[in-house]
Amino acid sequence: MTTHFEQVFMPKRVPFRILVASVALTALTAGAALAQTAGADRRFDRIERDLRTLQSIVQQAQATGQPVVVKPEGPDPALNALQTRAEDLESTLQRINGQIETLAQDVRTLRQAETAAEADRRAQAQSLNERMDRLETQLNALFQPEPTADAAVADPVAPGVDAPPPRRGGDADATSRAQAQDTGVLGAPPAARPAPPATPAESFARARDLFTAGDQVAATNAFLDFIARYPTGARTPEAYYWLGESYYAQRGWQNATAAYANALKDRPTTGWGPAAMVRLAQALTQSNQAPQACAALAEFDQRYAARATAAVKTNADAVRRRARCG
């Protein structure tokens, strides 16, 4: 049995588990305290290093006589400048991208318009070619060459018609020719023979002289005669052109149109080609055929404008305005 002294001054027996827990708690507390002490030591070391660096900077500044300015920590001005420049570049890039997109759309629109205009020009050229073919057919039917005198002598009787009976008294034709050549004077020499026909160059020059002299009717007949005599001659297309000029001077718009069309049938590359195409457009305009006139001017722009004279181009512009070509 314990005494009062033992109860007061003698510690009670502690269980083993409680003792172990107390020891562990003491160890953890000591470890945390050691860790806090180590962190504090590192922090103190960093502060001492910064102080030494600051002291060195102050000493260097004092040695050079420059004041020491301590600024509060804040954004880096260089970094702010770089960020501002990056934002400006981004804005500029967005603006350029927008302009590029606008230009691309304009290019697409122009290409579409060019494609449509090219299709329209081709359609007009095709229409003009078809009309020229029709005019050529009409012209060929209109200007069929009449039988020459030699053909009439060689075959005086038309096919399917009975020949008339021969006259009595021998060769009546020989007698008629002899009478025609009789000068009325016994023993006189026979009359002079007619001059040989002119050469193509002479016939063409004669027709041009009549045109230049202002005798348009005679010039028209002369050019018609030249075309009938030399339908495949080298200067026949040019003769058609001057025939058209003769008709145009007489206000014969339809005949002038046909003549110009025949002159341009083989797409001549001579000096009068551009003028003939513009004249064709003029004749069509005078005949109230504005769409065909515009098609002729489109053909002029495509084929002849590059080598046309300034006067011909001016005339083409005047016809284009009068025909209201788009």
Give a nutshell description of this structure.
The chain is mainly alpha-helical and 326 residues long.
Kindly list the characteristics that best describe this protein:
326 residues; mainly alpha; Serine Threonine Protein Phosphatase 5, Tetratricopeptide repeat; 12 helices; rod-shaped
Number of H- or I-type helical stretches: 12
Under CATH, the homologous superfamily of the domain at 134-145 and 198-323 reads: Tetratricopeptide repeat domain
Radius of gyration: 58 Å
Main beta sheet: none
Kindly name the structural category.
mainly alpha
**What is the string of SSEs from the N terminus onward?**
HHHHHHHHHHHH
Weakly predicted, low-confidence segments:
143-194
Explain the layout of strands and helices.
Layout: H1 4-9, H2 16-64, H3 77-142, H4 149-154, H5 172-181, H6 200-212, H7 216-229, H8 236-249, H9 253-263, H10 273-286, H11 290-303, H12 310-323
Helix pairs in contact: 3-9, 3-11, 6-7, 7-8, 8-9, 9-10, 10-11, 10-12, 11-12
Would you write up a description of this structure?
By secondary structure, the chain is an all-alpha fold. 71% of the residues lie in helices and 0% in strands. The protein has a domain at 134-145 and 198-323: Serine Threonine Protein Phosphatase 5, Tetratricopeptide repeat (Alpha Horseshoe). Helix 7 (216-229) packs antiparallel against helix 8. The longest helix is centred in the middle third of the chain and has 66 residues, at 77-142.
